[in-house]
Amino acid sequence: MAVGEDKLPELLPVPGVRLATVSAGVKTAGRRDLVLMELAPGSHCAGVFTGNAFCAAPVTVAREHLSRSAGQPAYLLTNTGNANAGTGERGIADARACCEAVAAATGVAASAVLPFSTGVIGELLPVDRISAAVPGAVDNLAEDGWAAAAEGILTTDTRPKGASVQFSCEGRDYVVTGIAKGAGMIRPNMATMLGYLATNAAVDAALLQGILREAVDISFNRISIDGDTSTNDACVLVATGAAGNSELASADEPLYRALADAVEEVCVALAQGLVRDGEGASKFVTVEVKGGVSEDECLDVAFTIAHSPLVKTALFASDPNWGRLLAAIGRAGVPDLDVNRIGVYLNEVLIAENGCRAASYTEEQGVAAMAPEDIVIRVELNRGDVSASVWTSDFSYDYVRINAEYRT
Amino acid sequence: MAVGEDKLPELLPVPGVRLATVSAGVKTAGRRDLVLMELAPGSHCAGVFTGNAFCAAPVTVAREHLSRSAGQPAYLLTNTGNANAGTGERGIADARACCEAVAAATGVAASAVLPFSTGVIGELLPVDRISAAVPGAVDNLAEDGWAAAAEGILTTDTRPKGASVQFSCEGRDYVVTGIAKGAGMIRPNMATMLGYLATNAAVDAALLQGILREAVDISFNRISIDGDTSTNDACVLVATGAAGNSELASADEPLYRALADAVEEVCVALAQGLVRDGEGASKFVTVEVKGGVSEDECLDVAFTIAHSPLVKTALFASDPNWGRLLAAIGRAGVPDLDVNRIGVYLNEVLIAENGCRAASYTEEQGVAAMAPEDIVIRVELNRGDVSASVWTSDFSYDYVRINAEYRT
């Protein structure tokens, strides 16, 4: 199951980035499960990684290599089918060995390669099969490889996610293209997801990191499928400089806002794509909380709703169960919450106010509001002027089936 | 589905308490859905209530009446089928009207009656039907009514929960009997549960409140079924004084520890009974965290495991998925957690150490450890000497079915 349109949009090449997707047989013979991305010399790469204390071996090595290459890696290598997580010292050595295979095939230093893995936790990585597939990947690098790469990084996802945005600034044309994967174990602070974005702009390394962090905070960190967070998450943003602009070095330049907006647009599209393809998802739900005193309290309310299994099973049933919504709002921990000032809307139908069902509300209105695949739950706290939104999916039989059967 | 033995133990009468369970037709005609408890004059009653900001009308009224009766109410009235929550001012009036019906039938003040409701949120209480059933309840009050009351308070529960403990102290015989309901929306800080305990001891009101609070903290506040908390939770402890002891007035008296232990034993039995009957439960899971620096960090780790949908679906599948356990431990937010010092056991089988699968571990051992209905997950943090345990259940198709269909 997945919600909404299935079609991958056209993914525009980013001059300076070439990609190849080949089969290494990591978990399933014949599956195209290995993606190599080549970054033109001089490209800057920013990255954000999982906050899980049990971070996977490739995350440790990718962080280290990003630092050792001074933010200018030459290759990104991603395998699916195996997360190389919970694999201890051996896992670290295996991640390094994969980087060495790329180094041997291309002549760069192993520290110029960032490794990424996703899939089953706790199995040893089949390094030999991955290494054997690397030379074939190097031979097949191409600028138009984004769509195949979007397929190659998937695990339990049912469809690829990608987005491109073009814009012009001061007479130059720019592009931002991104792909992402992740369908479960998704919640704030970088859940099981991998995201790769690139632009042809030339951008100072520190500024690039700031643009990525800001965009991730309001996109990937605003989604929740099941409240779990993963050991392997990573999102990178590459700036190749192939556009030929003088390096963006200040947030005051016109290019800064234009680029940051484009990166944000791509990140939001990818994040919403992850939720629409959430494990077992049959609804795409936007939870908007308005009228809060602070962004934190708006997010507390929004995520409490988004994480509630009772709300999520009601969404699966298309049941306008406003009682479960009120119960979730009430336990979100907002200090001095006056429940009598709160309004709750389902797709613009006022369902609850003054601490109870709205006088104007009818069950028919609620049923009609819950019928579409896309649902907006809006909570008006009426105590301030801050707002925040998160996106989530419902909780279905299929969610249980997928996660009960995943390893078997 | 439910886990373990189905038989309600013998529930011993508590001199000074009489109970009646009758049918008011709140939601289903003929269902015995109304429970009246009468407390002998002079009884003290302690209570703890939900922390949800959207607390239900009966909770508001029960708190107020407990205070107005100086902790000495004469009657407790409980209906199932309707939670009288999210019903605003009308709900408050309805809860008061139910108290007045008891007052009219018995001659006590309405403020000497505590109302309790459980069931669907957001529907108006059928006060007329409840009021009409009260006189019949008054006529049927009896000391041996505990087992019928344990049935009468249920909602989605599949079986009644009750426990009795007897003990002697300084030549007198004492009894503590309790019943509880609740099968979903259960997590720390008083989830959807109602609990009623009584003892024949005479106990000072403040001391009684302390005994109840302590017992609730390590029983009902240590269980989680789905991470949701309710608007209606309440647990009361009545001390009738029928044993004839001089009123217990100090924690230094021998009776204090004996009584507190008995209350704790009953609360733990009831709390575990709630988990065993958790919505869709097929496993009863104890999560023990040892070797922590503080109780808080042990509980953070234990509840992160207990709330994880990925761990819970793996438990449903009897899948020894230690990778998901490590991922949950890693995101529990424990500061400076050294993952290489952690050991994880499934029913005494060491499955993970040094941040990865234990060298001694075999998949066969894991499968064997996961086969029983009762599972102990033990996490050894090896950084201090504090421990804490919580109890939870798994996440099954039936959980989704029950909660997707509940209102229809």
Model regions low in confidence, pLDDT < 50 over at least 5 residues of chain A = 185-191
Q: Find the CATH topology of the largest domain in chain A.
A: L-amino peptidase D-ALA esterase/amidase
Specify the number of helices of chain A: 11
From the alpha-carbon coordinates, what is the Rg of chain A to the nearest angstrom?
22 Å
- The fourth-level CATH homologous superfamily of the largest domain in chain A is L-amino peptidase D-ALA esterase/amidase
Helix content of chain A: 25-40%
User: How many beta strands in the DSSP annotation of chain A?
Assistant: 16
Provide the residue-averaged pLDDT of chain A. Answer: 90
Helix and strand composition category of chain A: alpha+beta
Series of secondary-structure elements of chain A, N-terminal to C-terminal: EEEHEHEHHEEEHEEHEHHHEEEHEEH
Strand order of the largest sheet of chain A: 9-16-11-15-12-13-14
Residues in β-strands, percent of chain A: 25-35%
Distance between the termini of chain A: 20 Å
Assign the CATH architecture of the largest domain in chain A: 4-Layer Sandwich
Domain count of chain A: the total is 2
Question: What is the CATH domain class of the largest domain in chain A?
Answer: Alpha Beta
Oligomer state equals: homodimer
Shape of chain A: globular
Largest sheet of chain A: 7 strands, mixed
Kindly report the greatest chain-chain contact and the residue count on each side.
Answer: A-B, 63 and 63 residues
